[in-house]
């Protein structure tokens, strides 16, 4: 028998390797196909991406004929695959090896250097000069007190648009002059369209970096001064709008747990201090924090953890603190199918996933929600125009009105002046994080107002 040549032996070895690779490939496909068929393991919510996943499409003759059912089925299959969370997490870890991180909402609009904040020559008036509006009560001046300073001076590192220091992360803010001026004009137009019978309040919410980090540290990494930015926004707003700067009260309490470490939101305690400042501008007496029923939901890993997959954050998760309104904890929201859903203003989040515990506030990011407080019968009503920061703020306002409405400016489709007239609302509160008064969200504010 002829002995095989070296070349033939090499070819046979390659064929065996190819057969082994093909066998492993098709075996893996088979395993993934079996896993994909385990419909009872398919998730409904993504904790990493903080969203509801695609629902199974409704089977209709029209959907089959026009192909929309097949498209919806493909989306559902891919979006709810049982291993998707692990695969996304693995992708985050792989990106981290190359220094690449996904960006959430705190980004530079055009990737360029932040605009310089213009110097304000005339400070904004704290009380509108509109004769038709009843003058507001002057809030009592707090006695001077020295509080512990929680300002962070330690250097960190950039991960995409996120600045990390140890097991904490901070979203950065970059001032955009044209964006802030457009926001100021939009809020001013809201006051113009709704008239002097409706009070309009603008309360931009600073991000954690502006309140918690040393200003010199922020300047060294090119981020903007959020206090100065809020002052500039207020200076550009019509005098008929009540402008509320909550920066100083948050800075004063920055040694407290007012922002999450693993998430871009403020905590309910931070929202409380914003509420106290707003009450001063509205002529209301704020309730003491100890008057509320307090709840606690530990083990929260928020958006910064989802974006970075930081081991430090995972080993030291946040705790979601919640304060239940005294008048009522009942609310209604309209879901994306137009159905009215009964809910709680503060939901029990004990069984929520680690990434979803902030969803306990105000029904989360619904287009429209409302609460009726039976303890008040004077017909008073307000609407809170909010983003997700407003969710933790809503519970504190419920005890001051008979009706409190809150709309998410990103999803609400009606025109705000029409809604205010229809519901007989007296107070409109713009409660948006400062990014949404500067960045791409401004166009949605303009569209909402009309």
Question: Which secondary structure elements does this structure contain, and how are they paired or packed?
Answer:
Elements: H1 6-36, E1 45-46, E2 51-52, H2 61-66, H3 68-79, H4 84-97, E3 157-159, E4 162-165, E5 168-171, H5 177-194, E6 199-202, H6 208-212, H7 215-220, H8 226-236, E7 242-243, H9 247-252, H10 268-282, E8 293-300, H11 303-308, H12 311-315, E9 318-324, E10 330-334, E11 340-344, E12 368-372, E13 381-386, H13 390-397, E14 403-408, H14 416-423, E15 427-431, H15 442-449
Parallel strand pairs: 6-7, 6-15, 13-14, 13-15
Antiparallel strand pairs: 1-2, 3-4, 4-5, 8-9, 10-11, 10-12, 12-14
Helix pairs in contact: 5-8, 5-15, 10-13
How would you portray this structure in words?
By secondary structure, this protein is α/β, with parallel strands linked by helices. The chain has three domains: 1-32; 37-100, no CATH class; 157-449, no CATH class. 35% of the residues lie in helices and 15% in strands. It has helices spanning 6-36, 61-66, 68-79, 84-97, 177-194, 208-212, 215-220, 226-236, 247-252, 268-282, 303-308, 311-315, 390-397, 416-423, 442-449; strands at residues 45-46, 51-52, 157-159, 162-165, 168-171, 199-202, 242-243, 293-300, 318-324, 330-334, 340-344, 368-372, 381-386, 403-408, 427-431. The protein has an eight-stranded mixed beta sheet with strand order 7-6-15-13-14-12-10-11, with helices on both faces. Strands 3-4-5 form a three-stranded antiparallel beta sheet. Helix 10 (268-282) crosses helix 13. The longest helix is centred in the N-terminal third of the chain and has 31 residues, at 6-36.
């Amino acid at each position: 028998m002829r002995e095989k040549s070296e070349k033939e032996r090499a070819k046979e070895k390659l064929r065996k390797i190819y057969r082994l690779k093909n066998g492993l490939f098709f075996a893996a496909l088979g395993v993934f196909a079996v896993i994909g068929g385990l419909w009872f393991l398919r998730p409904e919510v993504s904790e990493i991406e903080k969203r509801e996943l695609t629902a199974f499409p409704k089977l209709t003759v029209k959907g089959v004929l026009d192909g929309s059912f097949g498209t919806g089925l493909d989306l559902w299959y891919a979006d709810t695959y049982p291993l998707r969370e692990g695969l996304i997490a693995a992708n985050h870890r792989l990106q981290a090896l190359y220094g690449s991180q996904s960006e959430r909402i705190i980004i530079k609009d055009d990737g360029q250097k932040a605009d310089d904040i213009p110097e304000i020559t005339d400070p904004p008036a704290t009380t509108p000069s509109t004769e038709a509006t009843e003058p507001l009560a002057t809030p009592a001046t707090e006695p001077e007190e020295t509080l512990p300073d929680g300002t962070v001076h330690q250097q960190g590192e950039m991960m995409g648009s996120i600045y990390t220091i140890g097991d904490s992360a901070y979203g950065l803010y970059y001032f955009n002059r044209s964006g802030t001026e457009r926001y100021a004009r939009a809020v001013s137009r809201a006051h113009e369209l709704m008239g002097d019978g409706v009070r309009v309040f603008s309360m931009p919410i600073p991000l954690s970096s502006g309140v918690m980090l040393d200003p010199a540290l922020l300047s060294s990494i090119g981020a903007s001064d959020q206090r100065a930015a809020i002052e500039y926004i207020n200076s550009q707003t019509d005098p008929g709008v009540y402008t509320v700067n909550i920066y100083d009260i948050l800075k004063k309490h920055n040694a407290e747990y007012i922002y999450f470490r693993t998430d871009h939101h403020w905590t309910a305690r931070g929202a409380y201090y914003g509420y106290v400042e707003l009450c001063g501008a509205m002529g209301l007496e704020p309730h003491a924090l100890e008057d509320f029923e307090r709840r606690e939901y530990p083990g929260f890993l928020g958006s910064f953890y989802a974006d970075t997959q930081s081991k430090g954050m995972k080993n030291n998760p946040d705790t979601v603190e919640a304060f239940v309104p005294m008048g009522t904890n009942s609310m209604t929201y309209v879901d994306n199918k137009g159905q009215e859903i009964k809910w709680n203003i503060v939901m029990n989040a004990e069984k929520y996933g680690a990434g979803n515990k902030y969803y306990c506030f105000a029904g989360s990011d619904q287009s429209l929600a409302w609460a009726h407080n039976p303890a008040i019968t004077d017909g008073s009503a307000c609407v809170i125009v909010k983003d997700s920061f407003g969710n933790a703020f809503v519970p504190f306002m419920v005890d001051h009105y008979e009706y409190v409405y809150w709309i998410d400016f990103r999803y609400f489709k009606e025109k705000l002046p029409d809604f205010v007239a229809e519901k007989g609302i007296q107070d409109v509160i713009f409660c948006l994080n400062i990014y949404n008064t500067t960045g791409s969200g401004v166009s949605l504010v303009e569209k909402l107002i009309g």
